[in-house]
Amino acid sequence: MIARLRGTIAHIGSDHLVIETHGVGFLVYAPRPVLANAGAIGDTMLLYTVLIVREDALTLYGFANSEQRSLFERLMSVSGVGPRVALGLLSTGTPAEIGGAIAHGDTARLARAPGVGKKTAERLVLELKGKLDLATLPPPPTGATAAAVALNNELGELLTSLGYSSAEASAAINAMPADAPEDLEERLRLALRYFGSA
């Protein structure tokens, strides 16, 4: 198994990068946050990797740290969740945020990830809720009413329907002030203002 890979970035794609080490270019699929923080062509990069062996392919997946890699493997232990879906989930937030959504049963947030429907989100919560270390996860949002949580879920769906990625929608919702009004139109205005200033 290839557990770590250090080399020079030769190419950065929309869902992968190529790391060249000792004259060999490794194509490595990675979540969006890893790709966004990869640096530039020619920079040196270290990735924590998982090699998945199939009958017709050897595929390498890369992560910024061992925590991210561990969550990727944990997500894939859920029936119906393959590498692409696990990568999609890891593209929507930090391991702590994703783990928090699972631990607190936030299926609407999980379902915003590409390839994750309502049933898969419910299966993730059902199969992983008791297996995550709750001490390392963020607590549920303080002062957030059930209505505010429902509004944020609706806002996430609205933002993705407007063309924003799940990760962008999550970032805008997470940046929402604690005293944001419990009104969808106002929250949408705040989210669009967030994108305007980003």
Automatic annotation (TrEMBL):
<dbReference type="InterPro" id="IPR010994">
    <property type="entry name" value="RuvA_2-like"/>
</dbReference>
<feature type="domain" description="Helix-hairpin-helix DNA-binding motif class 1">
    <location>
        <begin position="73"/>
        <end position="92"/>
    </location>
</feature>
<dbReference type="InterPro" id="IPR011114">
    <property type="entry name" value="RuvA_C"/>
</dbReference>
<dbReference type="InterPro" id="IPR012340">
    <property type="entry name" value="NA-bd_OB-fold"/>
</dbReference>
<dbReference type="GO" id="GO:0006281">
    <property type="term" value="P:DNA repair"/>
</dbReference>
<dbReference type="GO" id="GO:0005737">
    <property type="term" value="C:cytoplasm"/>
</dbReference>
<protein>
    <recommendedName>
        <fullName>Holliday junction branch migration complex subunit RuvA</fullName>
    </recommendedName>
</protein>
<dbReference type="InterPro" id="IPR013849">
    <property type="entry name" value="DNA_helicase_Holl-junc_RuvA_I"/>
</dbReference>
<dbReference type="GO" id="GO:0000400">
    <property type="term" value="F:four-way junction DNA binding"/>
</dbReference>
<comment type="function">
    <text>The RuvA-RuvB-RuvC complex processes Holliday junction (HJ) DNA during genetic recombination and DNA repair, while the RuvA-RuvB complex plays an important role in the rescue of blocked DNA replication forks via replication fork reversal (RFR). RuvA specifically binds to HJ cruciform DNA, conferring on it an open structure. The RuvB hexamer acts as an ATP-dependent pump, pulling dsDNA into and through the RuvAB complex. HJ branch migration allows RuvC to scan DNA until it finds its consensus sequence, where it cleaves and resolves the cruciform DNA.</text>
</comment>
<dbReference type="GO" id="GO:0009379">
    <property type="term" value="C:Holliday junction helicase complex"/>
</dbReference>
<feature type="region of interest" description="Domain III">
    <location>
        <begin position="146"/>
        <end position="198"/>
    </location>
</feature>
<feature type="region of interest" description="Domain I">
    <location>
        <begin position="1"/>
        <end position="64"/>
    </location>
</feature>
<dbReference type="InterPro" id="IPR000085">
    <property type="entry name" value="RuvA"/>
</dbReference>
<keyword id="KW-0234">DNA repair</keyword>
<dbReference type="InterPro" id="IPR003583">
    <property type="entry name" value="Hlx-hairpin-Hlx_DNA-bd_motif"/>
</dbReference>
<keyword id="KW-0963">Cytoplasm</keyword>
<dbReference type="GO" id="GO:0006310">
    <property type="term" value="P:DNA recombination"/>
</dbReference>
<dbReference type="GO" id="GO:0009378">
    <property type="term" value="F:four-way junction helicase activity"/>
</dbReference>
<dbReference type="Pfam" id="PF14520">
    <property type="entry name" value="HHH_5"/>
</dbReference>
<dbReference type="Pfam" id="PF01330">
    <property type="entry name" value="RuvA_N"/>
</dbReference>
<feature type="domain" description="Helix-hairpin-helix DNA-binding motif class 1">
    <location>
        <begin position="108"/>
        <end position="127"/>
    </location>
</feature>
<keyword id="KW-0233">DNA recombination</keyword>
<dbReference type="GO" id="GO:0048476">
    <property type="term" value="C:Holliday junction resolvase complex"/>
</dbReference>
<comment type="similarity">
    <text>Belongs to the RuvA family.</text>
</comment>
<dbReference type="GO" id="GO:0005524">
    <property type="term" value="F:ATP binding"/>
</dbReference>
<comment type="subunit">
    <text>Homotetramer. Forms an RuvA(8)-RuvB(12)-Holliday junction (HJ) complex. HJ DNA is sandwiched between 2 RuvA tetramers; dsDNA enters through RuvA and exits via RuvB. An RuvB hexamer assembles on each DNA strand where it exits the tetramer. Each RuvB hexamer is contacted by two RuvA subunits (via domain III) on 2 adjacent RuvB subunits; this complex drives branch migration. In the full resolvosome a probable DNA-RuvA(4)-RuvB(12)-RuvC(2) complex forms which resolves the HJ.</text>
</comment>
<keyword id="KW-0227">DNA damage</keyword>
<keyword id="KW-0238">DNA-binding</keyword>
<dbReference type="InterPro" id="IPR036267">
    <property type="entry name" value="RuvA_C_sf"/>
</dbReference>
